[in-house]
Amino acid sequence: MLRLTLPSSTSTPARVATINTNLLECRGLLFAHGALYANANNSKGLYRLCDTDGNDQFDEVKLLKATPGGVGHGRNQLALGLDGMIYSIHGDDVMLPADGAATNSPFAHYAEDRLLPATWDKHLFSGYVKMPSGHLIRTDRDGQKWELLAGGFRNPFGIAFNSDGEMFTFDADMEWDVGLPWYHPTRVLHIVSGGDYGWRRGTGVLPVWSPDTLPSAVDVGLSSPTAVMFGSKSHFPAPYRNALFILDWAYGRILAVHLTPTNSTYTGRFEVFLKGRPLNVTGLDFGPDGAMYFVTGGRRTQSGLYRVRALRPEPMNVAKAAASRAANPARLVRRQLEELRGSRSKAALEFVWKALNGDRWTQYAARTMLESFPVEMWQERALANIGPRNKARNSRGNEPQGPKFEIRNPKSEIGQRLPTSAAAVQGKDSREELAAQPAALLALARVGDRAIQPRVRDRLLWFVS
User: Fold this and answer.
1) How far apart are CA 28 and CA 190, in angstroms?
2) Of these four, 17, 35, 149, 305, which has the most CB atoms within 10 Å of its CB?
């Protein structure tokens, strides 16, 4: 780990000092709260380095959390959230430790959710990968509280917050699967609390239309994602100051992604900001001077540090950015839903229930919040819904309840009604079928066919097939 001090003039050489030689392959570095945080991939952990005696040297190194698993799709970048928390994003080789996250985390109820095993053979990759696959963790400055925020990624190398306080990443594809039905391209993802982005090992990838996953903001195509960073701190002219810059290691490109608020999420387009051959870009940030700094290297290739400056700098309008943060009503509803975790009030439940009729992202947030309420608070209301589509959607809220999962009792009302509700929509409305099929599949996958009455099981299997 090195510290590079840039000179004030080009006639003076840069100073390079060694900070640490024991932490291996630090893919993520973040200076925050007066300390340096390091996601040391080959050392398999998140570390904090402190200067305890004020001599400008990091004399204390503390392991905050060890993370088991492999190192290929490993412990990637770190980011500081607007809430002052440390965000750490991991690829699908990293496993959660036994004490890895609070049980009430937004993404605590993940599962493989497949009926047939993803049999390993020579044509599949990462056969050992298990849920939550690639994932996002949040912790406090001392590493005392850990929350699992989202999962279902493959290998998201970077994480960045826009001026609205929303999270984004650039996730990798499985290049061997190009052209196959379950293929997910490299894509820019809007990360929300509790989000499942569908990556599973082998052929188990969730299709983008599934209500159990969330779609991309932008599909990029063949590329090798590394770092991401918004231009919010830059002195670049608009629209680049608002763009998300994403790095493509394989094809030597920095892409500028221009995002547009769409309901409670974002959609966008991308353009090539700069490219070179070779330009094996690995990381970037914006300095106090508003310029972009990026580095190249990786896999024993030549490293370099580059700077990109605007010829006519335009400093950011802080007041305008703050106003934008509170401007989108649909986004505010989704955020209010995400903040209800742990609530047990009837007013909160009513707010969640109404939000089930929102756009796809609002529905997703409402459903994950509904799952956090005791099932007895809302089961009767769910069963009272008349429409098959609503029944299919609302009954899914029972899946993560563990012992309270009502369909575990095949004589329960939901256990009896779900097959009927699911079968009722077959051949009538393709959108309702898409909503109902995952509900039937989850009933089988999470309960097990032996725990369901044969008649109920057969109807579920018939509908899923």
Assistant:
1) 20
2) 149
Exposure string for 34-69, b = 16+ CB within 10 A, e = fewer? ebbbbbbbebbbbbbbeeeeeeeebeebeebbebeb
In the chain, the domains with their CATH numbers are 2-323 (2.120.10.30), 398-465 (no CATH)
Q: What is the distance between the alpha carbons of residues 50 and 29, in angstroms, rounded to a whole number? A: 13
Q: Confidence class of residue 1 from pLDDT cuts 50, 70 and 90?
A: very high
Using the predicted structure, report yes or no on whether residue 112 has a pLDDT greater than 70. Answer: yes
Written as six digits, the tokens of 245 are: 């810059």
Helices (H), 249-359: 318-325, 329-338, 346-355
**Which of 223, 207, 214 is closest to 190 using CA atoms?**
214
Residue with tokens 């799952």: 371
Q: What letter would DSSP give residue 182?
A: T
Where do the H-state alpha helices sit in 242-359? 318-325, 329-338, 346-355
Q: How far apart are CA 450 and CA 84, in angstroms?
A: 47
On whether the CB atoms of residues 197 and 189 are closer than 8 A, the answer is yes
Among 74-78, 179-183, 307-311, where is mean pLDDT lowest?
179-183
Name the least confident of 55-64, 180-189, 214-223, 422-431: 422-431
Q: Which of 139, 7, 130 lies closest to 70, judged by CA?
A: 130
Sign of CA dihedral 447, 449, 450, 455: positive
Are 207 and 182 spatial neighbours (Cβ–Cβ below 8 Å)? yes
Residue 409 banded pLDDT, cuts 50, 70, 90:
very low
> Residue 412 and residue 386: Cα distance in Å, rounded?
18
Under 8 Å CB-to-CB from 54, ≥6 apart: which residues? Answer: none
In a 10 Å sphere around its CB, with 0-12 CB exposed, 13-18 middle and 19+ buried, how is residue 2 labelled? Answer: exposed
Residues 267 and 168: their CA atoms lie apart, in Å, by 12
How many Cα atoms occupy the beta-carbon half-sphere of 172 within 13 Å?
25
H-helix segments, 269-375: 318-325, 329-338, 346-355, 360-372
Confidence of residue 317 (pLDDT cuts 50, 70, 90): low
Hey, is 397 helix, strand or coil? helix
User: Sheet containing 146-153: which strands, arranged edge to edge?
Assistant: 75-80, 86-90, 134-139, 146-153
Q: In angstroms, rounded to a whole number, what is the distance separating the alpha carbons of residues 65 and 97?
A: 9
Instruction: Tell me the pairing of strands 292-296 and 304-308.
Output: antiparallel
